[in-house]
Structure formats: structure tokens, C-alpha cells
Amino acid sequence: MRLTTGVALIAHGVTRLLASPMIEPTILLVLAIGPGLLLLAGLWTPIAGTLVVIIEVWTVFSRS
Predict the structure, then answer these.
(1) The predicted structure's pLDDT at residue 50
(2) Burial of 34 (C-beta count, 10 Å sphere; 0-12/13-18/19+)
């Protein structure tokens, strides 16, 4: 499950990063790719999971 989540976060971040020229989404996507890499490698899994939750909540509330 950790590998699937890590790959999904990285793929989503890179895909959106290439399509988004604005600065705020770019920062969020770069921050989302980092925990994705950590999850993929199995490093700091609880911290990476917490970072993913924080980033996604920030993304949800910044869009409204």
C-alpha cells in the first residue's frame, strides 16, 4: 500500500507540475512529491503520511 500511495503521489505531482504555471500550486505539488518519495522509499513513513494529510487538507481549503 505504501508503494502504491508513493507512486500515485509522485505521478500526480509531476503531471500537475508540468501543467501548472502558477506559483502556489507549484509549491504544493513539490511539497507533495517529497512525501511521495519518502513513502516510496519507506523512510519516515508516519511523518510522510502526516505531511500528505496536511498538504491535501491545505489544498482542499485553498481552492475555495
Answers:
(1) 93
(2) middle
Q: How many domains does the chain have?
A: 1
Q: What is the pLDDT of residue 5?
A: 87
The three-state DSSP-derived secondary structure of 3-57 is HHHHHHHHHHHHHHHHHCCCHHHHHHHHHHHHHHHHHHHCCCHHHHHHHHHHHHH
Among 4-8, 10-14, 18-22, 56-60, the range scoring the smallest mean pLDDT is 18-22
**Residue 27: pLDDT above 90?**
no
Q: What are phi and psi of 11, to 5 degrees?
A: -60, -45
What domain range is 30 assigned to?
Answer: 2-62
Contact 46/54 with Cβ under 8 angstroms?
Answer: no
Residue type at position 3: L
